[in-house]
Amino acid sequence: MISFWERESLLHADVVIVGAGITGLSVAASLKEKQPNHRILVLERSVLPYGASTRNAGFACFGSLTEIVSDIDHMGEEAARELLFQRWMGLQITRKRLSDKAIGYEDAGGFELVTESSRSAIERVASVNQLVDDFLPEYITNTSARKTDMGILADGSLYSMAQEGQVHSGDLMAALESYVTSLGVIVRTGAEVLHVASDRVEVRDSHRGTFDVRTGKVVVCTNAFARALIDVDVEPGRGQVFITKPIEGLKFKGNLHVDEGFYYLRNVGDRLLFGGARNHFFEQERTHDFEVTDEVQQHLASELKRIFGPDLAWEVDQRWSGIMAFGKEKLPIVQHTDDGLLVALKMSGMGIALAGFIGEEVADMIN
Ligand SMILES: Cc1cc2nc3c(=O)[nH]c(=O)nc-3n(C[C@H](O)[C@H](O)[C@H](O)COP(=O)(O)OP(=O)(O)OC[C@H]3O[C@@H](n4cnc5c(N)ncnc54)[C@H](O)[C@@H]3O)c2cc1C
Questions:
Q1: Ligand 1 surroundings by CB, under 6 angstroms
Q2: What is the pTM of this model?
Q3: Nearest residue to 314 via CA among 328, 304, 323, 299
């Protein structure tokens, strides 16, 4: 039950943002930077964001060779270039806003292991580089000579994306929340939104039950969970990962993309974080269920042995999963709906870099 005082002072806003992942908080940051007097309220169902933003691999990346080639073939050059540009620009915004130190940003470099079956992509390196040359100069280069130094034993050529980096995803989200609250954005957790309309949202909390929050505008940033609130082309894709205990003498540093990014591997200090394999378990991973499964985890373990060989000794420290959002089209959905809402979602597997750009785009649509 709601009190008079709560209804008068606490349950209204100029803009309500649903979802406190990296997209929701980036939208809040851009809005508040442009309109400091607006009352911005972010509603998050869980104590901590419970989707992808605090559960990912922390690649600050724009796209690897085979992924870009596949995007060009499916979306055309212009859309593929636009997506790369949005990721690149988004990362610049987030780094500038929060500082590299606060988000644990490292210029670690990204690599892709390209196998013989993707030879046709290798033939397109020059044209891909030309496509993005004005913002990512000399983006992709052959660095196969470094394979042995990095301890990679699996077959394939090694291509590097030098401008790619890493973040500490926990630090990034903590810094982003501190930043938006320092600007005066109100973030309420434990607030599940049950229904959205153009001028109000219905919220449930475990103590008060359900009540309305009045607002001038609603922005839905619930990514893979959006279909519970609106009719939109989004479906969930679970990503399972594990992180090893520290590995003595680990040579590998940076990010490694394998198989069009379906596998992702990075160092976290002297540990390895490894995840993916959705392409082998598509149906089972099309879920909102935050579980890890033996099949996927065993598959990942054998893939890691294939990459570094049986002599690298490692032990899993922790396993978890997060839920991404995908759709028929790869570009994110940032639009007004017929019901007068704004939606910003479907960040696929690259929301870290994209979110800063999406925040600016949404803020421009509101102002
Ligand atoms: C295992 C894994 C690895 C990844 N690796 C990378 C990577 O290396 N680099 C990269 O760029 N991207 C990566 N991603 C993708 C990236 O994490 C996402 O693109 C990004 O986090 C999406 O952010 P978001 O804010 O749009 O969505 P989310 O982070 O999912 O946020 C949505 C929020 O909405 C909340 N919510 C949902 N429904 C409601 C409701 N009804 N009411 C209130 N709140 C609600 C959820 O609790 C959640 O906090 C990875 C994802 C996973 C799962």
A1: 18-24, 43-46, 49-53, 55-59, 61, 192-193, 221-225, 228, 239, 241, 264, 275, 322, 324, 345, 347, 349-353
A2: 0.98
A3: 304
